[in-house]
Amino acid sequence: MNPTALITGASSGLGYEFAKLYAANGYNLIITARNEEKLQLLKEELTHIDVTVIPKDLSQPGASKELYQQVMDKKLPVTALVNNAGFGLNGNFDELSLQEQQDMLQVNITALTELTHYFLPSLKKAANQGLSAGILNVASTAAFQPGPKMAVYYASKSYVLSFSEALAEELKDTNVHVTTLCPGATGTNFFKTAKAENAKLAASTMSPQAVAKAGFEGYQKKHRVIVPGRMNRVGALAAKFVPRSVAARIAQNMNGANS
Ligand SMILES: NC(=O)c1ccc[n+]([C@@H]2O[C@H](COP(=O)([O-])OP(=O)(O)OC[C@H]3O[C@@H](n4cnc5c(N)ncnc54)[C@H](OP(=O)(O)O)[C@@H]3O)[C@@H](O)[C@H]2O)c1
User: Is 183 near ligand 1, meaning CB less than 6 Å away?
Assistant: First the structure.
């Protein structure tokens, strides 16, 4: 039996790259996002494996359960869950739409948590059968400090990192491993969606190919936390040693516009 990976946010950026990497390593795929056309195009690229397309808007309450049910109805045995879908919004908290920020929490936090809960039994079952089984959650270097001008986004990624590290410890005797990928700025649609194309942070990015490769390799090696790129690792380390208020001021500056 081929292993099967469920990848959220596979229509672009890191998710698209993860899909190609998992496929190249013999996984069948279940790919999801809102844009069905892009998912179908990805499926057409990956002719050597089985690809199931399930379009879903994860900002909608109940969407994760529907996705889980559709996977179960198709009797697809998920051995890898890649919680990658997510987005950010740039601006002061009170000036951004509350609804859009609630949608962000739904996608970045709630859907990730629900999918993990729904699919853990399948992953444990696969692990008990001697198959490699695990979860790859995409957080961010935003997880390491507060982020004024993207306050909810940074907080959501702190949740992803904390939740995933705790889960990794809970599951350490089950053979289901949990890897958290914490990318720094990466050249995807992220900044356009976040309306942060002019932010200083967007000026220097890693390629999505390099970031996804680091995440996939970390997942294969069962590492708990991966921060791709030397400068990102330095930043993540520095955030542990400077006062939180100083780290917040630096993040605010990076989230602000390039003058
Ligand atoms: N790029 C960066 O600088 C960076 C840095 C750190 C962490 N990250 C994280 O990396 C992950 C992937 O982002 P990316 O950089 O690859 O950006 P991206 O190219 O914009 O991809 C985001 C993916 O999430 C999906 N998505 C967004 N809203 C969704 C919704 N409501 N329902 C279902 N799917 C949804 C999008 O698909 P549809 O639009 O088709 O729904 C797309 O496939 C995110 O979790 C992001 O927070 C990115």
Answer: yes
Residues 198, 257: contact at Cβ < 8 Å? yes
Q: How far apart are CA 51 and CA 156, in angstroms?
A: 30
What is the number of the ligand 1 atom nearest to the C-alpha of 86? 45
Cα–Cα distance between 104 and 29 in angstroms, integer?
Answer: 25
CA-to-CA distance for 219 and 82, rounded, in angstroms? 10
Contact 39, 12 (CB under 8 A): no
pLDDT, tens only, 23-48: 999 999 999 999 999 999 999 999 99
Angle between helices 36-45 and 13-24 (to 10 degrees): 30
Indicate the top mutation candidate among 8, 21, 34 to test ligand 1's pocket, ranked by most ligand atoms within 8 A of CB: 34
The domain defined by 4-255 folds into Rossmann fold (3.40.50)
15 lines ligand 1 (CB under 6 A): yes
Please say if the pLDDT value at position 166 is more than 70.
yes
From the CA of 189, how far away is ligand 1's center (Å)?
A: 8
DSSP string for 129-144: TT--EEEEEE--GGGG
**Residue corresponding to tokens 């499926």:** 43
The pLDDT-based confidence of 61 (bands split at 50, 70, 90) is very high
**Residue 137 CB–ligand 1 contact under 6 Å:** no
